[in-house]
Amino acid sequence: MTFSMKKKLAVTAALALALCMISGGALACTSIYAGPALTDDGSAIFGRSEDYANSQNKLMYVAPAGKHAAGELYNGCYGFTWTFTHDSYGYTAFSDDNGEGAGGVCPDCDGDHPHTPYEAGGVNDKGLVVSATETIGSSDAAYEADPYEDLGIEEAEIVTVLLSEAASAKEALAVLTGIYDTAGANAGSGIFIADNAETWYIENVTGHQYIAVKLSSDMVMVQPNMSIIGAIDLDDTENVIASAGLIETAQAGGFFVGDADANVINYVLSYNEETAPNARMVNALAFLDPAFADAAAEDIDPAASYLISNVGENGEIVPMHTGITPDKKLTIEDVQAFYHIGNIGYVRNLETHVFQTYPQGGAADTVEWICMNDAGFNVFVPYFPMFTADVDASYKVSTPVAPFVEEEPESGLYYATTATRRVDGERVTVEGFKVLPENWADSMYWTYDALSNLIMYGGVSEEQAAAVSEALSAKQAEVNEAFAAFKAGFDASAADAADVATAWSMAVAQDVHALGVSLTNGLIGE
Protein backbone atom coordinates (compact mmCIF):
# COMPACT_ATOMS: atom_id res chain seq x y z
CA MET A 1 0.00 0.00 0.00
CA THR A 2 1.45 3.36 -0.98
CA PHE A 3 0.34 6.92 -0.45
CA SER A 4 0.88 9.98 -2.61
CA MET A 5 0.14 13.10 -0.62
CA LYS A 6 1.76 16.50 -0.78
CA LYS A 7 3.22 17.43 2.59
CA LYS A 8 6.13 19.72 3.38
CA LEU A 9 8.06 18.92 6.53
CA ALA A 10 9.73 22.19 7.42
CA VAL A 11 13.28 21.90 8.76
CA THR A 12 15.09 24.86 10.21
CA ALA A 13 18.02 25.93 8.08
CA ALA A 14 20.63 25.54 10.81
CA LEU A 15 19.56 22.01 11.70
CA ALA A 16 19.23 20.99 8.08
CA LEU A 17 22.72 22.23 7.36
CA ALA A 18 24.09 20.25 10.29
CA LEU A 19 22.42 17.10 9.03
CA CYS A 20 23.56 17.47 5.46
CA MET A 21 27.16 18.33 6.30
CA ILE A 22 27.68 14.88 7.86
CA SER A 23 30.03 13.05 5.52
CA GLY A 24 30.71 9.67 7.08
CA GLY A 25 30.94 7.44 10.13
CA ALA A 26 28.52 6.77 12.93
CA LEU A 27 29.07 10.21 14.37
CA ALA A 28 26.44 10.51 17.09
CA CYS A 29 25.81 6.99 18.37
CA THR A 30 25.27 6.41 22.09
CA SER A 31 25.94 3.19 24.02
CA ILE A 32 24.87 2.14 27.50
CA TYR A 33 25.69 -0.82 29.76
CA ALA A 34 24.16 -1.86 33.10
CA GLY A 35 25.63 -4.87 34.88
CA PRO A 36 23.40 -7.68 36.19
CA ALA A 37 23.85 -6.62 39.82
CA LEU A 38 22.29 -3.26 38.93
CA THR A 39 19.28 -4.49 36.93
CA ASP A 40 15.95 -5.58 38.32
CA ASP A 41 15.96 -9.03 36.69
CA GLY A 42 19.66 -9.91 36.91
CA SER A 43 20.37 -9.51 33.20
CA ALA A 44 23.21 -7.53 31.72
CA ILE A 45 21.58 -4.82 29.60
CA PHE A 46 23.58 -3.03 26.94
CA GLY A 47 22.90 -1.43 23.60
CA ARG A 48 23.61 1.27 21.09
CA SER A 49 21.83 3.75 18.88
CA GLU A 50 23.27 3.78 15.38
CA ASP A 51 23.30 7.32 14.03
CA TYR A 52 24.42 8.53 10.65
CA ALA A 53 21.95 10.70 8.77
CA ASN A 54 18.30 11.49 8.38
CA SER A 55 16.46 9.34 5.81
CA GLN A 56 18.97 6.65 4.89
CA ASN A 57 17.41 3.21 4.74
CA LYS A 58 18.48 0.48 7.17
CA LEU A 59 17.48 -3.18 6.88
CA MET A 60 17.13 -5.89 9.53
CA TYR A 61 17.22 -9.61 8.75
CA VAL A 62 18.53 -13.03 9.68
CA ALA A 63 21.72 -14.06 7.88
CA PRO A 64 21.45 -17.84 7.41
CA ALA A 65 24.17 -20.21 8.57
CA GLY A 66 26.57 -20.86 5.71
CA LYS A 67 26.01 -17.49 4.05
CA HIS A 68 29.81 -17.37 3.82
CA ALA A 69 31.58 -20.63 2.96
CA ALA A 70 34.87 -21.87 4.42
CA GLY A 71 37.70 -20.45 2.32
CA GLU A 72 35.57 -17.65 0.86
CA LEU A 73 37.36 -14.32 0.46
CA TYR A 74 35.31 -11.42 1.80
CA ASN A 75 35.99 -8.01 0.28
CA GLY A 76 34.92 -5.17 2.52
CA CYS A 77 33.96 -1.62 1.68
CA TYR A 78 37.38 -0.04 1.90
CA GLY A 79 39.97 -2.67 1.00
CA PHE A 80 39.99 -5.00 4.01
CA THR A 81 39.74 -8.68 3.10
CA TRP A 82 39.02 -11.73 5.19
CA THR A 83 39.10 -15.44 4.39
CA PHE A 84 36.45 -17.32 6.34
CA THR A 85 37.88 -20.23 8.31
CA HIS A 86 34.61 -22.19 8.36
CA ASP A 87 31.07 -21.91 7.06
CA SER A 88 29.62 -18.86 8.80
CA TYR A 89 27.26 -19.08 11.75
CA GLY A 90 23.73 -17.76 11.34
CA TYR A 91 23.01 -14.41 12.96
CA THR A 92 20.60 -11.51 13.23
CA ALA A 93 21.88 -8.26 11.76
CA PHE A 94 21.19 -4.78 10.51
CA SER A 95 22.80 -3.44 7.36
CA ASP A 96 22.75 -0.40 5.16
CA ASP A 97 20.70 -0.88 2.01
CA ASN A 98 22.49 -2.00 -1.14
CA GLY A 99 19.66 -4.27 -2.23
CA GLU A 100 17.69 -4.39 -5.45
CA GLY A 101 15.78 -1.21 -4.65
CA ALA A 102 19.03 0.67 -4.18
CA GLY A 103 20.45 -0.73 -7.40
CA GLY A 104 22.99 -2.80 -5.53
CA VAL A 105 25.05 0.28 -4.72
CA CYS A 106 26.47 0.52 -1.22
CA PRO A 107 25.71 3.90 0.41
CA ASP A 108 28.97 3.71 2.36
CA CYS A 109 31.56 3.19 -0.37
CA ASP A 110 29.40 3.74 -3.50
CA GLY A 111 30.57 0.34 -4.71
CA ASP A 112 28.47 -2.27 -6.47
CA HIS A 113 30.76 -5.22 -5.63
CA PRO A 114 29.04 -8.03 -3.69
CA HIS A 115 29.45 -7.31 0.01
CA THR A 116 27.41 -6.56 3.11
CA PRO A 117 27.35 -2.83 3.86
CA TYR A 118 27.90 -2.02 7.51
CA GLU A 119 26.26 -4.67 9.64
CA ALA A 120 25.85 -2.76 12.89
CA GLY A 121 25.02 -5.39 15.51
CA GLY A 122 23.44 -8.74 16.16
CA VAL A 123 23.55 -12.17 17.78
CA ASN A 124 24.75 -15.39 16.20
CA ASP A 125 23.39 -18.88 16.77
CA LYS A 126 26.17 -19.63 19.27
CA GLY A 127 25.07 -16.76 21.53
CA LEU A 128 27.78 -14.26 20.61
CA VAL A 129 26.60 -10.63 20.74
CA VAL A 130 28.43 -7.85 18.88
CA SER A 131 27.57 -4.16 18.60
CA ALA A 132 29.95 -2.08 16.48
CA THR A 133 30.73 0.67 16.56
CA GLU A 134 30.94 3.90 18.48
CA THR A 135 33.19 6.03 16.28
CA ILE A 136 36.00 7.66 18.29
CA GLY A 137 39.25 9.38 17.43
CA SER A 138 42.74 9.94 18.81
CA SER A 139 45.05 12.81 19.62
CA ASP A 140 47.26 14.02 16.79
CA ALA A 141 50.34 12.65 18.54
CA ALA A 142 48.81 9.19 18.92
CA TYR A 143 47.72 9.13 15.30
CA GLU A 144 51.21 10.09 14.12
CA ALA A 145 52.76 7.36 16.28
CA ASP A 146 50.36 4.63 15.11
CA PRO A 147 48.34 5.75 12.08
CA TYR A 148 45.30 3.92 10.78
CA GLU A 149 45.84 1.33 8.07
CA ASP A 150 44.16 1.95 4.72
CA LEU A 151 43.57 -1.80 4.32
CA GLY A 152 42.78 -2.40 7.98
CA ILE A 153 39.41 -3.54 9.30
CA GLU A 154 36.77 -0.81 9.32
CA GLU A 155 33.60 -0.65 11.41
CA ALA A 156 31.62 -1.72 8.35
CA GLU A 157 33.22 -5.19 8.49
CA ILE A 158 33.58 -5.95 12.22
CA VAL A 159 30.13 -7.40 12.91
CA THR A 160 30.11 -9.45 9.70
CA VAL A 161 33.46 -11.08 10.46
CA LEU A 162 32.98 -11.68 14.18
CA LEU A 163 29.42 -13.05 14.08
CA SER A 164 30.33 -15.30 11.15
CA GLU A 165 33.49 -16.66 12.74
CA ALA A 166 33.34 -16.68 16.55
CA ALA A 167 31.34 -18.81 18.98
CA SER A 168 32.07 -16.88 22.20
CA ALA A 169 33.11 -13.46 23.42
CA LYS A 170 36.69 -14.60 24.11
CA GLU A 171 36.96 -16.14 20.66
CA ALA A 172 35.61 -12.96 19.05
CA LEU A 173 38.09 -10.85 21.00
CA ALA A 174 40.91 -13.08 19.78
CA VAL A 175 39.76 -12.72 16.17
CA LEU A 176 39.43 -8.94 16.37
CA THR A 177 42.63 -8.26 18.28
CA GLY A 178 44.46 -10.60 15.93
CA ILE A 179 43.28 -8.44 13.04
CA TYR A 180 44.34 -5.27 14.86
CA ASP A 181 47.76 -6.82 15.49
CA THR A 182 48.27 -7.71 11.82
CA ALA A 183 46.14 -5.88 9.26
CA GLY A 184 45.37 -3.09 11.71
CA ALA A 185 42.33 -0.83 11.96
CA ASN A 186 41.03 1.60 9.37
CA ALA A 187 39.35 3.81 11.99
CA GLY A 188 38.82 4.22 15.74
CA SER A 189 35.93 2.62 17.57
CA GLY A 190 34.32 1.42 20.78
CA ILE A 191 32.71 -2.04 20.60
CA PHE A 192 30.62 -4.38 22.75
CA ILE A 193 31.49 -8.09 22.51
CA ALA A 194 29.50 -10.37 24.80
CA ASP A 195 27.93 -13.71 25.55
CA ASN A 196 25.93 -14.99 28.52
CA ALA A 197 29.05 -15.29 30.65
CA GLU A 198 30.71 -11.92 30.11
CA THR A 199 30.50 -8.53 28.43
CA TRP A 200 33.63 -6.85 27.06
CA TYR A 201 34.13 -3.32 25.84
CA ILE A 202 37.07 -2.63 23.54
CA GLU A 203 38.48 0.67 22.28
CA ASN A 204 41.04 1.41 19.59
CA VAL A 205 41.82 4.91 18.38
CA THR A 206 44.93 4.13 16.31
CA GLY A 207 45.99 1.54 13.77
CA HIS A 208 47.30 -1.25 16.00
CA GLN A 209 46.95 -0.25 19.67
CA TYR A 210 43.86 -1.22 21.65
CA ILE A 211 42.53 -2.05 25.09
CA ALA A 212 39.61 -4.29 26.06
CA VAL A 213 38.04 -4.44 29.52
CA LYS A 214 35.59 -6.96 30.95
CA LEU A 215 32.71 -4.98 32.41
CA SER A 216 31.82 -5.86 35.98
CA SER A 217 28.39 -6.88 37.22
CA ASP A 218 27.93 -3.78 39.40
CA MET A 219 28.79 -0.95 37.04
CA VAL A 220 26.99 1.33 34.59
CA MET A 221 28.71 2.99 31.64
CA VAL A 222 27.72 5.37 28.85
CA GLN A 223 29.66 5.98 25.64
CA PRO A 224 28.52 8.80 23.29
CA ASN A 225 31.37 8.82 20.71
CA MET A 226 33.96 9.45 23.41
CA SER A 227 36.81 7.28 24.59
CA ILE A 228 35.84 6.35 28.16
CA ILE A 229 38.59 3.98 29.31
CA GLY A 230 40.60 5.75 31.99
CA ALA A 231 43.26 4.40 34.37
CA ILE A 232 43.77 0.68 33.77
CA ASP A 233 46.22 -1.70 35.47
CA LEU A 234 47.30 -4.04 32.68
CA ASP A 235 48.37 -6.69 35.21
CA ASP A 236 44.67 -7.49 35.67
CA THR A 237 44.94 -10.05 32.87
CA GLU A 238 41.63 -11.73 33.76
CA ASN A 239 39.74 -8.54 32.96
CA VAL A 240 42.04 -6.67 30.59
CA ILE A 241 43.32 -7.50 27.11
CA ALA A 242 45.66 -4.92 25.61
CA SER A 243 47.98 -4.63 22.63
CA ALA A 244 51.58 -5.53 23.39
CA GLY A 245 52.89 -2.07 22.56
CA LEU A 246 50.22 0.04 24.23
CA ILE A 247 52.50 1.68 26.80
CA GLU A 248 55.67 1.60 24.70
CA THR A 249 54.00 3.31 21.72
CA ALA A 250 52.72 6.07 23.98
CA GLN A 251 56.13 6.49 25.60
CA ALA A 252 57.93 6.64 22.27
CA GLY A 253 55.48 9.25 21.00
CA GLY A 254 55.79 11.35 24.13
CA PHE A 255 52.12 11.14 25.10
CA PHE A 256 52.10 8.45 27.81
CA VAL A 257 50.15 9.21 30.99
CA GLY A 258 50.29 6.63 33.75
CA ASP A 259 52.78 4.63 35.76
CA ALA A 260 54.84 2.42 33.49
CA ASP A 261 56.62 0.73 36.41
CA ALA A 262 53.23 -0.34 37.79
CA ASN A 263 52.00 -1.29 34.28
CA VAL A 264 49.22 1.28 34.58
CA ILE A 265 48.07 3.47 31.68
CA ASN A 266 45.43 6.18 31.57
CA TYR A 267 44.16 5.34 28.11
CA VAL A 268 42.04 8.46 27.61
CA LEU A 269 44.77 10.88 28.64
CA SER A 270 47.44 8.99 26.73
CA TYR A 271 45.72 8.41 23.41
CA ASN A 272 42.96 11.04 23.35
CA GLU A 273 43.81 14.04 25.54
CA GLU A 274 40.25 15.37 25.36
CA THR A 275 37.93 14.08 28.11
CA ALA A 276 35.38 16.86 28.47
CA PRO A 277 31.83 15.46 28.35
CA ASN A 278 29.73 16.14 25.27
CA ALA A 279 26.06 17.12 25.50
CA ARG A 280 24.85 13.53 25.21
CA MET A 281 27.07 12.46 28.11
CA VAL A 282 25.76 15.32 30.26
CA ASN A 283 22.16 14.36 29.47
CA ALA A 284 22.85 10.67 30.07
CA LEU A 285 24.45 11.29 33.45
CA ALA A 286 21.51 13.46 34.52
CA PHE A 287 19.11 10.68 33.47
CA LEU A 288 20.97 7.86 35.21
CA ASP A 289 22.45 9.40 38.34
CA PRO A 290 20.74 11.96 40.60
CA ALA A 291 24.17 13.34 41.55
CA PHE A 292 24.46 14.84 38.08
CA ALA A 293 20.90 16.07 37.65
CA ASP A 294 21.89 19.75 37.93
CA ALA A 295 25.55 19.52 36.93
CA ALA A 296 26.90 21.61 34.07
CA ALA A 297 29.43 20.09 31.72
CA GLU A 298 32.28 22.12 33.16
CA ASP A 299 31.49 20.82 36.66
CA ILE A 300 31.71 17.13 35.72
CA ASP A 301 34.98 15.38 36.56
CA PRO A 302 35.42 12.55 34.00
CA ALA A 303 37.56 10.36 36.23
CA ALA A 304 35.07 10.58 39.08
CA SER A 305 32.03 10.06 36.91
CA TYR A 306 32.12 8.23 33.60
CA LEU A 307 35.63 6.90 32.92
CA ILE A 308 36.15 3.14 33.31
CA SER A 309 38.93 2.13 35.70
CA ASN A 310 40.20 -0.86 37.67
CA VAL A 311 42.61 1.16 39.84
CA GLY A 312 41.68 1.85 43.46
CA GLU A 313 42.46 4.86 45.62
CA ASN A 314 45.72 3.31 46.80
CA GLY A 315 46.74 2.01 43.39
CA GLU A 316 45.42 -1.50 43.99
CA ILE A 317 43.51 -3.50 41.36
CA VAL A 318 39.75 -3.31 41.96
CA PRO A 319 36.72 -4.39 39.87
CA MET A 320 35.98 -2.31 36.78
CA HIS A 321 33.87 0.67 37.74
CA THR A 322 32.68 4.13 36.80
CA GLY A 323 31.30 6.87 39.02
CA ILE A 324 27.76 6.46 37.66
CA THR A 325 25.54 5.30 40.54
CA PRO A 326 21.82 5.05 39.76
CA ASP A 327 19.52 5.35 42.74
CA LYS A 328 17.63 2.19 41.77
CA LYS A 329 18.09 -0.99 39.82
CA LEU A 330 17.53 -0.38 36.12
CA THR A 331 14.78 -2.07 34.13
CA ILE A 332 14.45 -2.66 30.42
CA GLU A 333 11.88 0.16 30.52
CA ASP A 334 14.56 2.48 31.92
CA VAL A 335 16.92 1.66 29.07
CA GLN A 336 14.14 2.14 26.53
CA ALA A 337 13.47 5.53 28.12
CA PHE A 338 17.20 6.32 27.96
CA TYR A 339 16.90 6.23 24.18
CA HIS A 340 14.10 8.81 24.32
CA ILE A 341 16.49 11.44 25.69
CA GLY A 342 16.82 14.48 23.46
CA ASN A 343 19.79 14.23 21.05
CA ILE A 344 20.20 10.52 21.92
CA GLY A 345 16.90 9.43 20.36
CA TYR A 346 16.37 11.65 17.32
CA VAL A 347 15.91 11.79 13.55
CA ARG A 348 19.43 10.65 12.67
CA ASN A 349 18.99 7.28 14.39
CA LEU A 350 19.12 4.56 11.76
CA GLU A 351 18.22 1.90 14.32
CA THR A 352 18.71 1.14 18.00
CA HIS A 353 19.45 -2.27 19.46
CA VAL A 354 19.40 -3.28 23.13
CA PHE A 355 20.51 -6.70 24.36
CA GLN A 356 19.75 -8.58 27.55
CA THR A 357 21.96 -11.52 28.48
CA TYR A 358 21.09 -13.73 31.42
CA PRO A 359 23.75 -15.79 33.23
CA GLN A 360 21.85 -19.07 32.87
CA GLY A 361 23.35 -19.32 29.38
CA GLY A 362 20.48 -21.03 27.58
CA ALA A 363 19.48 -20.12 24.05
CA ALA A 364 16.43 -18.27 25.40
CA ASP A 365 18.58 -16.29 27.83
CA THR A 366 19.63 -13.76 25.22
CA VAL A 367 17.06 -11.14 24.19
CA GLU A 368 17.41 -8.53 21.47
CA TRP A 369 15.19 -5.43 21.46
CA ILE A 370 15.16 -3.34 18.29
CA CYS A 371 13.54 -0.28 16.79
CA MET A 372 14.14 1.23 13.37
CA ASN A 373 14.79 4.95 12.89
CA ASP A 374 14.18 7.55 15.61
CA ALA A 375 14.18 5.78 18.99
CA GLY A 376 12.54 8.81 20.59
CA PHE A 377 9.26 8.14 18.76
CA ASN A 378 9.18 4.39 18.43
CA VAL A 379 8.46 1.00 19.97
CA PHE A 380 11.15 -1.61 20.74
CA VAL A 381 10.26 -5.09 19.50
CA PRO A 382 11.79 -8.05 21.41
CA TYR A 383 13.34 -11.17 19.88
CA PHE A 384 14.90 -14.40 21.01
CA PRO A 385 17.63 -14.01 18.39
CA MET A 386 18.94 -17.57 18.68
CA PHE A 387 15.45 -18.83 17.85
CA THR A 388 14.55 -16.22 15.23
CA ALA A 389 14.43 -17.80 11.80
CA ASP A 390 13.08 -14.74 9.99
CA VAL A 391 11.71 -11.24 10.57
CA ASP A 392 8.73 -9.40 9.20
CA ALA A 393 8.95 -8.29 5.58
CA SER A 394 8.71 -4.62 6.61
CA TYR A 395 12.27 -4.81 7.95
CA LYS A 396 13.66 -5.99 4.60
CA VAL A 397 12.21 -3.49 2.12
CA SER A 398 15.02 -2.26 -0.13
CA THR A 399 14.24 1.12 -1.69
CA PRO A 400 15.81 3.73 -3.92
CA VAL A 401 17.90 6.29 -2.09
CA ALA A 402 15.80 9.22 -0.85
CA PRO A 403 16.84 11.91 -3.33
CA PHE A 404 17.58 15.53 -2.61
CA VAL A 405 15.92 17.80 -5.18
CA GLU A 406 16.03 21.57 -5.48
CA GLU A 407 12.55 21.98 -6.98
CA GLU A 408 9.60 21.30 -4.70
CA PRO A 409 7.88 18.02 -5.71
CA GLU A 410 4.29 18.13 -6.87
CA SER A 411 3.34 15.01 -4.86
CA GLY A 412 4.67 12.49 -2.41
CA LEU A 413 6.06 12.77 1.07
CA TYR A 414 9.06 15.07 1.51
CA TYR A 415 10.59 17.67 3.77
CA ALA A 416 12.53 20.88 3.27
CA THR A 417 16.25 20.71 3.96
CA THR A 418 19.60 21.80 2.54
CA ALA A 419 22.56 20.05 0.95
CA THR A 420 26.05 21.04 -0.02
CA ARG A 421 27.04 21.12 -3.67
CA ARG A 422 30.36 21.90 -5.34
CA VAL A 423 30.04 24.91 -7.63
CA ASP A 424 33.08 26.27 -9.47
CA GLY A 425 35.34 24.32 -7.12
CA GLU A 426 33.69 25.61 -3.93
CA ARG A 427 31.20 23.99 -1.58
CA VAL A 428 27.94 25.92 -1.37
CA THR A 429 24.73 25.34 0.55
CA VAL A 430 21.69 24.63 -1.58
CA GLU A 431 18.08 24.67 -0.38
CA GLY A 432 15.82 21.86 -1.49
CA PHE A 433 13.79 18.84 -0.45
CA LYS A 434 14.43 15.26 0.64
CA VAL A 435 11.86 12.94 -0.96
CA LEU A 436 10.85 9.71 0.76
CA PRO A 437 10.28 6.56 -1.34
CA GLU A 438 6.76 6.14 -2.69
CA ASN A 439 6.42 2.83 -0.84
CA TRP A 440 7.49 4.28 2.52
CA ALA A 441 4.49 2.69 4.23
CA ASP A 442 5.72 -0.81 3.31
CA SER A 443 8.91 -0.32 5.29
CA MET A 444 9.41 -0.26 9.06
CA TYR A 445 12.35 2.11 8.67
CA TRP A 446 10.64 4.56 6.32
CA THR A 447 7.36 4.51 8.27
CA TYR A 448 9.08 5.71 11.42
CA ASP A 449 11.31 8.06 9.42
CA ALA A 450 8.17 9.73 8.06
CA LEU A 451 6.60 9.86 11.52
CA SER A 452 9.72 11.32 13.12
CA ASN A 453 10.17 14.03 10.51
CA LEU A 454 6.50 14.99 10.70
CA ILE A 455 6.71 15.35 14.47
CA MET A 456 10.04 17.13 14.56
CA TYR A 457 9.83 19.43 11.57
CA GLY A 458 6.34 19.29 10.08
CA GLY A 459 4.58 21.97 12.08
CA VAL A 460 2.91 19.39 14.30
CA SER A 461 1.35 20.94 17.40
CA GLU A 462 2.46 20.03 20.91
CA GLU A 463 -0.91 18.37 21.46
CA GLN A 464 -0.55 16.24 18.33
CA ALA A 465 3.02 15.22 19.23
CA ALA A 466 1.92 14.37 22.77
CA ALA A 467 -0.89 12.18 21.45
CA VAL A 468 1.55 10.29 19.23
CA SER A 469 3.99 9.87 22.10
CA GLU A 470 1.21 8.61 24.35
CA ALA A 471 0.10 6.05 21.75
CA LEU A 472 3.67 4.79 21.29
CA SER A 473 4.26 4.60 25.05
CA ALA A 474 1.05 2.64 25.51
CA LYS A 475 2.09 0.22 22.78
CA GLN A 476 5.55 -0.19 24.35
CA ALA A 477 4.00 -1.00 27.72
CA GLU A 478 1.70 -3.50 26.03
CA VAL A 479 4.62 -5.14 24.20
CA ASN A 480 6.76 -5.31 27.34
CA GLU A 481 3.98 -6.93 29.35
CA ALA A 482 3.18 -9.41 26.60
CA PHE A 483 6.83 -10.36 26.20
CA ALA A 484 7.28 -10.94 29.92
CA ALA A 485 4.40 -13.42 29.80
CA PHE A 486 5.66 -15.00 26.59
CA LYS A 487 9.20 -15.38 27.96
CA ALA A 488 7.92 -16.96 31.16
CA GLY A 489 6.05 -19.61 29.21
CA PHE A 490 8.52 -20.16 26.36
CA ASP A 491 9.75 -23.75 26.05
CA ALA A 492 13.22 -23.54 24.51
CA SER A 493 13.44 -27.34 24.33
CA ALA A 494 10.31 -27.77 22.20
CA ALA A 495 10.77 -28.99 18.64
CA ASP A 496 8.85 -25.99 17.33
CA ALA A 497 10.57 -23.38 19.57
CA ALA A 498 12.05 -21.49 16.60
CA ASP A 499 8.70 -21.39 14.82
CA VAL A 500 6.94 -20.16 17.96
CA ALA A 501 9.52 -17.45 18.70
CA THR A 502 9.66 -16.29 15.10
CA ALA A 503 5.89 -16.09 14.75
CA TRP A 504 5.47 -14.22 18.05
CA SER A 505 8.02 -11.51 17.28
CA MET A 506 6.82 -11.23 13.68
CA ALA A 507 3.26 -10.58 14.86
CA VAL A 508 4.44 -7.89 17.29
CA ALA A 509 6.52 -6.25 14.56
CA GLN A 510 3.53 -6.18 12.22
CA ASP A 511 1.46 -4.56 14.95
CA VAL A 512 4.13 -1.93 15.63
CA HIS A 513 4.52 -1.25 11.91
CA ALA A 514 0.76 -0.86 11.46
CA LEU A 515 0.64 1.58 14.37
CA GLY A 516 3.40 3.67 12.80
CA VAL A 517 1.58 3.84 9.47
CA SER A 518 -1.68 4.78 11.20
CA LEU A 519 -0.05 7.54 13.26
CA THR A 520 1.80 8.94 10.25
CA ASN A 521 -1.30 9.02 8.09
CA GLY A 522 -3.20 10.57 10.95
CA LEU A 523 -0.76 13.47 11.12
CA ILE A 524 -0.82 13.88 7.34
CA GLY A 525 -4.60 13.98 7.43
CA GLU A 526 -4.60 16.56 10.20
Description:
The structure is a single chain. With 526 residues, the protein is α+β, with helices and mostly antiparallel strands. Helix content is 27%, strand content 24%. It has twelve helices and 25 strands. Strands 13-2-3-20-21-22 form a six-stranded antiparallel beta sheet. A six-stranded antiparallel beta sheet has the order 8-9-10-11-12-15, covered by helices on one side. Strand 5 and strand 6 form a beta hairpin. Helix 10 runs parallel beside helix 12 (497-525).
Name the CATH superfamily assignment of the largest domain.
Answer: Penicillin V Acylase, Chain A
Give the DSSP E fraction (strand runs of 2 or more residues).
15-25%
Largest sheet: 6 strands, antiparallel
* Overall number of strands: 25
**Ranges with pLDDT <50 over ≥5 residues?**
1-26
Radius of gyration: 22 Å
CATH level 1 class label of the largest domain: Alpha Beta
